[in-house]
Design goal:
single chain, alpha+beta, 2 helices
Length: about 90
């Protein structure tokens, strides 16, 4: 689904601990205006980039959540960069 030209996007960041990561991502994916999620480590290095579309919300999301769960076991603190539309 291409992004319409009149849609404005903005970014925000959430800092979460590793044990909060999966639940936070689940919550964000349910929001209708989220377009993309990037998970970064404490150094600001991108670990995972998740494009969020209507198709991602279904069964396709399960392997992504499994990967996020494995990632959460490796990091103590991380940042989620959220791209949203207004």
């Amino acid at each position: 689904m291409p992004q319409e030209k009149n849609e404005k996007t903005f970014k925000e960041e959430l800092k979460v601990s590793g044990d909060q990561l999966v639940n936070t991502v689940k919550k964000l994916v349910r929001e209708a205006n989220v377009r993309n999620l990037k998970i970064k480590n404490e150094k600001g290095e991108e670990l995972l980039n998740i494009p969020v579309t209507a198709a991602t919300v279904g069964a396709i999301l399960l392997p992504v959540l499994a990967a996020i769960g494995a990632l959460a076991a490796l990091v103590t603190k991380c940042t989620i960069e959220i791209e949203k539309t207004k």
